[in-house]
Amino acid sequence: MSDAFPEEEIRAAYDAYVAQRDEVEAGRAPWSSLAEWFTDDATFIDPAWGRVEGIAGIREFLDESMAGLEGWTFPREWTAVTGNRLISGWQNRLPGARPDGTPWQAPGISIMTYAGEGKFSMEEDLLNMVHVTELIRESGWKPGPGFNLPPAQPVR
């Protein structure tokens, strides 16, 4: 790993990434717009969709994997930086709420490697897919138009 970047620079890049994600969640930008925060040779690892290599693949993955999930949000809860790595805890929040008013949500963690110039060279998202599946079933959520299932044999 190269010399560490200043923590403030890493956090500023992530804050910009999250601000863009907020725009996406609000329906004002496509999911693929998040690719702007990745290097051309970046790797994205998703628990359901597997390993995606390169900026073009990441763009395609973001739009394909998030189609039909309109209304889902991913609020950040905490962020830590160590060396060139940023680790963030967030929620997979489905639309609506439980009868008691609490959200339908399951925690997730992203591990991102910062490469400089406002870009990340890697993101790996970790979450319990069984928990997410149970929430979907309990909440009665139904996917929107264009929804895609992950590949049967994702690249790991």
Given the structure, what is the number of helices? 3
Give the overall shape, derived from the CA principal axes: globular
Q: Give the number of domains.
A: 1
CATH architectural category: Roll
How big is the Rg?
16 Å
Unreliable spans: none
Q: Report the CATH topology name.
A: Nuclear Transport Factor 2, Chain: A
The separation of the N and C termini measures 22 Å
- How can the largest sheet be summarized? 6 strands, mixed
Query: What's the overall average pLDDT, rounded?
Result: 96
Provide a brief overview of the structure:
The protein is an alpha+beta fold and 156 residues long. 27% of the residues lie in helices and 36% in strands. The chain contains 3 helices and 6 strands.
